[in-house]
Amino acid sequence: MVFSSLTFLYLFLPAVLLLYFLAPARLRNAVLLGASLLFYFCGEQIYLLLMVGEILVTYAFGRLMEASEGRKKKLFLIVFLLLSFGLLGLFKYADLIPETVNSLAGEERLKLLKLPLPIGISFYVFQSVSYGIDVYRGKYPAERSLPNLALYVSFFPQLIAGPVVRFETVKENLRERTYSMERVSNGLFRFTVGLGKKVLIADRLYAFCDAASKGNPSVIVAWAEALAFLLYVYFDFSGYSDMAIGLAHTFGFDLPENFDHPLVSRSFREFWRRWHISLGTWFRDYLYIPLGGSRKGLPKHIVNLLVVWACTGLWHGASWNFVLWGLSFGIMLMLEVILERAAGKRTHDNAALSVFKRGFVLAVTVLLFVWFRFTDLSEATAQFKKMFGGAPLLSSDSGYLLSGAALLLAVALIGATPLPLSLAKKLSLSGKGRALVPVLRSALILFVLVFATAYLVDGSFSPFLYFRF
Amino acid sequence: MPKRITAALPAVSFVAALALGSISLFASPKETWSLSERRPLASAPELSGKTIMDGSWFGELDGWMADHFVNREEFRHLRMLFQTKMLREHEYNGFIEYNGYLINLQKEINEDSVGYAAERFGYVWEKYLKKSGGNIYCTLVPDKSSLVGKYGYPTIDTANMDKMYEEALPFAKAFSLRAVLELEDYYFTDTHWRQEKLIPVAKYMLETMGRDVSLLDESFETEEIFPFFGVYAGQSAMKPEGESIRWLTGGFIDRLNVTDLETRAPMPVCDPENCDEKDLYTLFLGGGKGLVRIDNPAAPEGELIVFRDSFGSSMAPLLASGYRTVYVVDLRYAHPDVLGRYIRFNGQDVLFMFSETLLNNSRGLR
Questions:
Q1: How far is A74 from chain B (nearest CA, A)?
Q2: Final residue of a domain: which of B21, B54, B73?
Q3: Do A189 and B69 touch (CB under 8 A)?
Q4: Rounded mean pLDDT, B261-280
Q5: Is B9 in Cβ contact with A441 (below 8 Å)?
């Protein structure tokens, strides 16, 4: 089940909200856990057992690691990591090497397992692993309550598309939560904003990408298509994160932010501090720093960067295009490190340089996301060719395609900057504006719900991109 | 406003909207047919242990909800408005509106479909026409979308489409209707052409086939039904105004004898009383009929066999001005194997007249 579906909006969500707020406080976790398991079951049925298995393994090994010392504790950690990553490896990556060998050989030399990818497996395995490692490190005690841990791993607002939440973030929320009408309003408003980003913007951007790819090739349209794809991924994924954060907020949980206007970044390091923040910090804390980070000299630093970014790419999908995508970002970050070391760190950029840097980072990011789009590398290469002169500057249908998408692209570009948020903040701080905010929020909620429903009633296409992960 | 009320307003709006949608969805009476899309609506998914465990119940539930959502047509219209008026996109589900004409843009040639049609035409040729002799012609009826290509809209490569059609009928002499048809010859809300505009086109076709056209110079009247909402009116969700559907009467048309060959029963040229009221274009020549014969005692000697789709329903009576007998065959309803039972193929003129739309979606041909 996806959030942007009629089943979720008009059946599942009202039922869960009703049950949750009618239930006495001591039963609310049970309501959420039951809803989360049902939510997953609706999409995956038998694979629910996999998630339950991962929860039991995480719980058991957390307790075992806490109760042991030294080598035994380490052994428990290793076994736990092997089981968790083994699950991920089996269901997500088992066919990567055989597929590659078969593709290189031009015939089927190795048999493929062809296991369907369980929805959200990368998210719940990473959450479980972070919990296990933190318990091993003694950051916090193992959770005594199995239902609480189960709720942490399976919490439906963020189960299938993140953010990747740390246990320490929600530990207190699992035991005690505060409620207020303002909190519920804020949560539902945030959810609605995310729904609008997904259904009214991201899906339209995808439709443009699709139309552009079928039109007569031209350089300008190829660039617009690549930009639209980056914007699509941003609105799709950040929209989902908004919905997850908003729903969790409604239920009394405070999840971490996952996006912070990454498309206005002035460097690639800044971009990754603003894009999929929960995944970036996961890799930083559980891979980059344990590898030595930047502390062991430039060559080791570079190697660490490349390892982390290859893994980040691979996390997004069992396909070499994702590895290339991750490594490309790794290389850009590496170049930044080298340049900074050579030139010294600048403390202040003037306006022109700042604009140039933002434009440069955006342009390169648009290019790098071409790898992200096509699992078939030849399609990615064809797209690059179109963008760099392998097609006429404009073709017969370029004007039609571009004029039909101009407003959408403009709205998306402006929407990806902090401008709308800062205007809303200004309004809420002004005297008259403050009184208007709840009314405007209500109007926006109704607008988005009506038009998103219109799309859902009429449309069959609305898959979440990040389901694949 | 008190702070408690203002704080609650967004939450109340959200919950009220969802509650309204949920309650009305489940409480409203359910339709079984979508008139606007000309398709059956999804039936309620079967709830059983098997459908739950294989996920099909959950999968079908969303489709059922989409089909039966209260005020579904209004929501479709809202989506169209959001997309074309607010986002200023050109198309909604592939539809555009140009000067009031609703047009479903066909941008790509479906080569598999053209190949399939070629195979079916080839079958007819091998089975009947090869031995029969006679002149064989083919012409393609342009879709409205082909006619707006000159105004900057993306459309199929018409030259290539014509070439592929000709290659699909290598035994026929091809002639083009592109120069004699304009957008005004078609309905605003429907895919079809307007019979009352077709006399010059019919003349052109008959002259090309070397036939006399004098009967087409008689004076005709038109009758009409208003309002007519064509098939695009609902599909496009644009809520267009109704238009008139008109048919020609008088002159030789009133003297035509039409027979449904499968039932051997006489039938009117146009039958506004008994046509499908959901699809008024079926008033022409009985709508979906596999085999019809039109006899025109006033026409010169000669027979014509027209292999056609629905565009032929309004054109065939006009072509009967040039032939004593016209056989009208729709291969979607009549299998080629049965044609020999109703038609003696013995050197008649043959015309393959299909629309671009059918050629691009030919799987229905038998």
A1: 40
A2: B73
A3: no
A4: 89
A5: yes
Please state the domain extents for chain A. Answer: 6-177, 183-266+349-468
Q: What is the pLDDT of residue A4?
A: 93
| Pairwise CA distance, residues A128 & A135, whole Å | 11
> Which tens digit of pLDDT belongs to each residue from B159-214?
999 999 999 999 999 999 999 999 999 999 999 999 999 999 999 999 999 999 99
**One domain for residues B212 and B289:** yes
What pLDDT, on the 0 to 100 scale, is given for residue B40?
A: 86
| CB–CB contact B11 A188 (8 Å) | yes
Angle, helices A146-154/A167-175, rounded to nearest 10 degrees:
130
Q: What is the mean pLDDT of chain B?
A: 93
Distances from the Cα of A97 to the Cα of A107, A116, A373, angstroms:
14, 16, 21
B51 touches chain A (CB under 8 A): no
Closest-CA distance, B136 to chain A, in angstroms, reads: 36
Residue A469's pLDDT is what?
Answer: 47
Q: Are residues A400 and B90, on separate chains, in Cβ contact within 8 Å?
A: yes
- A68: exposed, middle or buried (C-beta count within 10 Å: 0-12, 13-18, 19+)? middle
Residue of B1, B3, B9, B14 to mutate for A, most A C-beta atoms under 10 A: B14
State the pLDDT confidence band at B269, using cuts at 50, 70 and 90.
Answer: very high
Helices (H), chain B: 3-27, 49-53, 56-68, 72-81, 111-124, 130-132, 144-147, 158-168, 199-208, 231-235, 311-319, 339-342, 356-360
Splitting chain A (469 residues) into consecutive groups of 10 residues, what average pLDDT does each group show? 93 96 96 97 92 98 95 96 96 92 88 90 96 97 97 95 93 93 96 97 96 91 97 97 97 96 96 96 96 88 93 94 95 90 75 93 97 93 94 90 97 97 89 85 96 88 44
What pLDDT is recorded for position B1?
63
The nearest alpha carbon in chain B to A212 belongs to B154
Nearest-CB residue to A9 (from B18, B55, B87): B18
Count of beta carbons in the 10 Å neighbourhood of residue A299: 8
Task: Specify if B217 maps to a domain.
Answer: yes
Q: Give pLDDT tens digits for B121-165.
A: 999 999 999 998 899 999 999 999 999 998 889 999 999 999 999
Shortest Cα–Cα distance, B37 to chain A (Å): 11
Residue B79 falls inside a structural domain:
no
Catalytic entry in A276, A301, A316, A348:
A316
Catalytic, A261? Answer: no
Nearest to A400 by CA among B154, B105, B100, B96: B154
B91 inside domain: no
Cα B142 to Cα B149: distance, rounded to the nearest angstrom: 11
Q: Which of B7, B22, B91 sits opposite A185 (nearest CB)?
A: B7
What distance in Å separates residue B74's CA from the closest CA in chain A? 8
Judge: B58–A43 Cβ closer than 8 Å, yes or no.
yes
* Domain span holding position B68: 3-73
- Number of domains comprising chain B: 2
Asked if the model's pLDDT at residue B50 lies above 70, the reply is: yes
Pick from A14, A403, A456: CB nearest B22: A14
Strands of B206-348 (E only): list them.
221-228, 243-249, 257-260, 265-267, 291-295, 303-308, 325-329
> Is residue B193 in a domain?
yes
Closest-approach residue (CA) in chain B for A445: B14
CA-based R_g, chain A, Å: 23
Cβ A451–B78 below 8 Å, yes or no? yes
Residue A462 has a pLDDT of 38
